[in-house]
Amino acid sequence: MWTLADVERAVRASWGADTCDPADRPDWDPGNPARGQCGVTALVLHDLFGGELVLGEVRVAGERTGVHYWNRFGTGLEVDLTRGQFRPDEDVVGAQVVQRPDGPPKRCREEYDLLRTRVLARFRGVPTTSPAAAPAPSKPAVPG
By its UniProt entry, which InterPro entries does this protein fall under (predicted)? Predict the structure, then answer.
């Protein structure tokens, strides 16, 4: 069984400019690999552990500049692997549970598929260069 810590290590090791939201790609940097990864990361954690997707607003000087996604699990445990991406002038406000639409994401589909493939490959010993080689996982241990 996988633990949340195992998945966190795999996710963090799998981020890259190519898994970043294209809107955030100009701000992506290896020194801050979480930048632009929130949506795809929250979806991959949801794939693996279920739970709820949580949405907040990113604000700078009180003005909305974007959105931020993270996860909430059974006992109210909130997990935000990408919280460290924000600059000191950026604030995340609000926390609204959102329903995940059926099917693959409409935005960042390629980035989501790539991150999911890389994360699963780390548990399967499959080379990350072969997207078709990473089948759906068996259910890991649910956090909380």
Answer: YunG-like
